[in-house]
Amino acid sequence: MASPVRSRLSLAMERTGKWVFSKDIPTDVVVVVCEASFSLHKSMLMAKSNYIRKLIFESKEPELDRINLSGIPGGPEIFVKAAKFCYGFNFEITVHNVAALRCAAEYLQMTDVYCDYNLAGRTEDFLAQVALSSLSGAIFVLKSCEDLLPLAEDVNIVQRCIDAISLKACNEANFPSRTPPNWWTEELSILNIEFIGRILSGMRKRGAKALTLASALITYTERNLRDLVRDHSGRCTKSSISDDSGMYAHERELLQSIVSLLPSEKASLPINFLCCLLRSAIFVKASNSCKNELEKRISVILEHVTVDNLLVMSFTCNGEKLYDLDSIRRIMSGFMEKEKNMAVFSGGDFKETCSAAMHRVAKTVDSYLGEIATYPELTISKFNGIATLVRKGARKVDDDLYRAIDIYLKAHPNLDEIEREKVCSVMDPLKLSYEARIHASQNKRLPLQIVLHTLYYDQLKLRSGADDQPDAAATRSQLQSDVSLVSENEALRSELKKMKLYISEMQKNKGSSAKSISAAAATSGPRKHTFFSSMSKTLGKLNPFKHGSKDTSHIDDNLAVDITKPRRRRFSVS
Q1: Half-sphere exposure of residue 226, counting CA atoms within 13 Å on the CB side?
Q2: In angstroms, rounded to a whole number, what is the distance separating the alpha carbons of residues 452 and 449?
């Protein structure tokens, strides 16, 4: 099946042949334009085109019968119209072909300098009176110039279109002529990003507001990056979109260009749009400068961010994979630095005072941690790294943070005691509400230290009375002492258990040794009396304390006596 372009070209050649061969004068030159050939008359072409006249007169061949014009702007279709103009036939000039005809007239040197009322003059009249008189017409003309560069720049078509579009777009933004009011942003989205940048620059010079420029960029992004994101929710148009960022080289270049054109005013762009841009930048692996610019813009207005916005930046398009959270951490660090600078500028203490924006961000971050806590790729260091970026003073209560911790512990059941204590270290048990403390005291997933904190705090409240709140610093110090004491007692119990096992083993070993000694004595027979044994026995009879309290002559020599020193005992909590 023939392509539409080839079909239109064949039809144009057929029509050209009809009006050429209807003449009685035979043709004397063949003009080749790409794959098309046209049999024409030299005299008709030379009368309007100075370029063709020079080719024929300056040719070294005596009879030049073949001319190659494959470099003409617009190709065969535009050459057909130029040839018709040479022959005096009428043809239609539209906003879609006027730029190509003007460039072809420049290429063929069909200007008014060479001949009055030439093709260049006719196209210039159409541009001024028709094409550039409306916003849509100027946009279509500029769109057609994308394939005519750099000649379209040389004949000043591009700049005139940009000036006309900038002026008329500003007028539409201020005084809409039809509905919807931002219809002109849809019209602009068909242009390439280079032209968009020049148009926005022209609008800015004419006093366009930042919101107007942002509206044009948002519409342009949604239309030209539709494969990455459909709307500000971050949802993709295709559920099976590939995670291979190498497939999106064009989108990466386009995204980086869009980011470079964003208005500098912080309130001009919605936070959800910036989050979508950052997620797309991470996905297509845009340059670090592009991502850093988006992160800075988000951090400036982070108090307006929602949990959904943060989730948009955290997951892939299909929502199955958790991105590296470095961008989230940098955004929060930038926000904290901004708050610190504002506190210093206003003469306050950053460590003691927290703005309303800080409280909103803290609540949002805690809720965000609860949403991502179930993912296995979220390590303890990443979880704590995000939680600790928010100052503890920014949280009025730690209930949302406790919920996130509980979800994390439930989703990671293989953590040992030390790891669970590390997860809980970002939370202050004294800042839990009564309901949260009741839940924590019965939560078997929490480490013992946290449970003791919550129980002890309630005990202190009961002792001090319902209306008398205990001092937080003193309570925290007392809790640490008590927890240390409990830990020491636990260690002592463990040591006592080990000592009891050791003593029982020793007794078992001693009993077996005594039995072996008795058995050996029985097999060896009666002892032989030696000189020293006889002397010892004689001296024993002369013992003056024989009938006293210290008499030991009645004790059998063969009887085993335990002469070990008695073991000192210590009191312990058991």
Answers
A1: 6
A2: 5
